[in-house]
Amino acid sequence: MTDEKNPHDLPRWVFPVAVLAMLAVVTLGTAFWMWRDSKPRRRAALLGAPDPVVRNIPGHAGLSVPADMGWTNGMAWVPPGTFKMGTADGQPDEQPAHEVSVDGFWMDATEVTNEQFEKFVKATRYITIAERKPDARDFPTAPPEMLVPGSICFNPPLDAVSLENHYVWWKWTPGANWRHPEGPGSDIKGREKHPVVHVAWHDALAYCQWAGKRLPTEAEWEWAARGGTDQSPKSEAEMITSNKWRANIWQGEFPQLNSTADGFRVTAPVASYPPNGYGLSDLAGNVWEWCADWYRPDYYAQSPKKNPVGPESSFDPNEPQTPKKVQRGGSFLCSDVYCRGYRPSARGKGALDTGLSHLGFRGVRSK
């Protein structure tokens, strides 16, 4: 099994920089390290910074929280409980398996949809990070024509490639954002019930605060994903019941050929598959989901047993200067040979300013 290696680990701005680097016959890795080191003070500050509040997020002049929205509509109650978080036989950052107790909470029964996110944008005129032009001060040597809004899209190669070279199937796409999931020429018409994608952590936070919700902690998310049982799918074979797929994941040869045996090439409308024991859909596959917690691979060794909220700051040994938040659930790109992010214990992580074509979120609210 190969670990998922994709732009979850990279800030979105590396991709336009990478284009410039390739034009200059410079490797993508070199371009990234040059970029990353160009803003050490900004990133060092973020590593220990408290979570931002809505009024400090660029792209809007302040968000007004609506009056009573009937906030339990579309949500499911997740009862309090104690469970074994993590696993003894997964990736190193999923270990050790440890006992955790969480209070009860309400969780969105599905991932936030394009339709729901559009209501938020219309009410607030919020501008997502993917829709904003990169700041020229961050890229003083970049030609102006390269400093355009955009995001990172899955771009399957025509033939088999090494699973170690994940840049082959990811493409920085100018004009890609939540309204245009595959870039210019695509839109969300007919995909109103699909999960919103190309949302950075800041975008997800802004929506949740407007809706009177919050992002789930990693412990809440895993407890909810287990659905009151330890029988959550742990392999691709367990994703099939009575010859029907239980989740939107990859079938076929990754990354060049998706057989779409589950019925979908990319995202699926939310709740296309049966919910778990708590009435929650799509906690395995479809799109990765942002959590509230900072990411540290060794956090489980020191996690409190009661309502853990994650470490005080981020640290990823692969990119120690890039602050990251936890992502959970896997996506339509996960399979047994690549990623396996659909397992309830699987952990992902990503830079706060990064959105991708297989990354979304859902909200929670305490009782």
The CATH H-level homologous superfamily:
paralog of FGE (formylglycine-generating enzyme)
State the distance separating the first and last CA atoms: 40 Å
Count of DSSP-assigned helices: 6
Query: Structural class, please?
Result: alpha+beta
CATH class, anyone? Alpha Beta
Structural domains: how many: 1
Oligomeric form of this entry?
Answer: single chain
Briefly say what this structure is.
The protein is of the alpha+beta class and 367 residues long. The chain has helices at residues 14-23, 28-36, 40-47, 114-124, 201-210, 218-226; strands spanning 75-78, 81-85, 98-102, 105-108, 150-154, 170-174, 240-241, 244-245, 252-253, 257-258, 288-294, 324-328, 348-351, 359-360, 364-366. α1 packs across α2.
